[in-house]
Amino acid sequence: MVEIDASGKTSRQINTEIKQAACEAEEILVLNPSASHHLGVGILKPVKITYEGSVGYFCAGLSDGCDVVINGNAGWCLGDNMMSGKIIVNGRGGSSLGPAMRGGTIIVRGDVGNRLGQVMKDGLIIVEGNAGFMAGFMMMGGKIIVMGDIGERAGHWLINGEIFVGGNIVGLGSDAQVEELTDEDVNFLHRTLAQYGLESNLPFKKITSRKELHHYSKKES
Amino acid sequence: MCGIAGVIYKKPNLIGKTLCSMLAGIQHRGPDSTGVALYGAQEDGLKIWLYYSGSVGRNELIEEVKQSLKSLSVSIHDVLWKGDFFSIRVRMQESIDILCNKLENVDGLHIISVGSSLEIFKDEGFAENIDEKFDLSGFIGTHGIGHTRLATESDVDVRRAHPFWANGFADVAIVHNGQLTNYYTLKRRLERKGYRFRTDNDSELIAVYVADRLSSGDNLRQVLEQSVEDFDGTFSYLVSTPNEVGFAKDKLGAKPMAVLEGEDFVAIASEEVAIRRVFSDKEKGNRYWEPAPKEVMTWLR
After folding, report:
1. Could you count the other beta carbons within 10 Å of the beta carbon of residue B135?
2. pLDDT of A91-143, one tens digit each?
3. In the 8-state DSSP scheme, what is residue B69?
4. CA–CA distance, B127 with B36 (Å, rounded to integer)
5. For the whole model, what pTM was predicted?
6. CA-CA distance, B8 to B148, in Å (whole number)?
7. pLDDT band at B210, cuts 50/70/90?
8. pLDDT given at position B43
9. Is residue B286 within 8 angstroms of chain A, CB to CB?
10. Could you tell me the domains of chain B?
11. Which of these, A144, B2, B151, B155, is most buried using a 10 Å CB contact count?
């Protein structure tokens, strides 16, 4: 394991060290990240990176196959465009969490900000707390599970994909609807949440697209 | 962009140093100008900070200022220069508006702040520059707000740098991150009420709006709640008064804000990275959150 002390260093200095360490070790421990931005961006190696403290904007963006643990809060756009891998946030998640992600899993132990999973294309996001305003904004695919409440305009302009909500839905966005859970959904929730040791016995509801905004009403034959 | 920051301590502390450190952490959000509004000990009379862009000498200028205020029963004390900026302490019976109008009759003179405990320090450049220029690291007080500016709506200069003093209303200041899209409508409405705008900066409107509502008897929380309904656009802004700091967030939550609340302090900033410059994430028991759209909150010092 390689230990990196980020105290007093710029994002570029810390990232140079992380990139170097990812070539040499399977595990990297970053101490005192102090909410610095752009940490661990573009790491394409199957490496475990643990941040002992909060991280700033765009952490683990453009990454592929990393196993990231954040023992603090995450800033905006965590895991932006990530291809695969896993990110666990043991604090609070910022706004626009997992934007445009194409695969992999993000798990947040606390609440998250606004526009959760904005334009995400695939993959899975689990939020143990509450999600803010416009969650799933223009989401194109993948799955979001919010164990707590979801804020106003949930699923706004949803194109594809599914949002499961264990708590209350404060309000639905344009072109979003609440659907009944299928047996397949129930199995998926049970299986997925059990995998992470989470409670699946909640009154889950499913938000999907009504497909009247970004979809043609007549299908090509 | 633009970065905003605020801090409240339960007991007097080095607020200048705290805010400059926080602002240095979000300097990337605004490299054009930096400023702070600090609240020190309440003193007799009013302290006025002025910026001078004219060409006459210092002694000559002070004479000109005295001449301009001659018709008022005002006494001027303690002239203190910091580069192109200087402060005076005044004791007077007249309204602040009358005093300010007289001062602004002097060519090249711009009022930065007026208050019995408020002092605003702002200039082009970075947090470290204003810290050094105005010796802010030694400033002791209970609360303050600060700003790093990336100019989007008007020129880069001292007059348009934040914080903005609420013209005509002593001891009130604002800092703002965002754009008000109904600026001209609201500005005309306030001008019809008799308010005069010193710049073409949309953030000055917030300062005048807040002053207007406070003077009509609303408390700070009511002002902030109403502003979220009245303002269009994207905004996160902070207001400070002699004993309160508050924030308001737009309907879309498009501009960031993070808050850390501890037992004897509250720290607010655009990004957590600013807060962590001063308040470690190793200390447990503090409450951290990102305010929701339309959320407003106030704290008494």
Report:
1. 12
2. 999 999 999 999 999 999 999 999 999 999 999 999 999 999 999 999 999 99
3. T
4. 9
5. 0.94
6. 19
7. very high
8. 85
9. no
10. 3-42+125-300 (3.60.20.10), 44-116 (3.30.70.1510)
11. A144
